[in-house]
Amino acid sequence: MRNIIIIIVILLISSCGKGSFTTYELINETGYGLVIEGYSHRGVSDIILAAEKMFLEENSTISFQRAKGEVTDERGFFSIPAIDSVRIIFDYNKLLVLSCPRITNRNCHSIFNYFVAKITEEDYNNAVNINTD
Known about the structure:
The chain contains two helices and ten strands; from the N terminus they run αβββββββββαβ. The radius of gyration is 19 Å and the shape is elongated. The protein has one domain. The longest helix has 14 residues. By secondary structure, it is α+β, with helices and mostly antiparallel strands. The strands form two sheets. Strands 2, 3, 4, 6, 7 and 10 form a six-stranded antiparallel beta sheet that branches. Strands 5-1-9-8 form a four-stranded mixed beta sheet. β8 and β9 form a beta hairpin.
């Protein structure tokens, strides 16, 4: 009986701290620094939630993990679920706004396709100028 208890305790201890994660990758294929902002107002009236901003240098890639679970599965690339719009700012000079018609943000736009997001020169060309200088 004592051996069974010891085995159960060892199994419990060894499983602590290990979780299931999904790895996401953001790729900036442009020659411009990026700020990526996700927003959500779904399910909450008159309140807009902002995800953590993501920063990428020109021609760079970042990878990060998100824990899997009931609530966290819906976060995808962003720190909050149910993203309905994404702003990509190129060197604080041009802005590309993407709307996300789906409930989850994992497939917000073709840029954010499953687990890898690529921002390209074509996306930069589709962005509008925000500086009026």
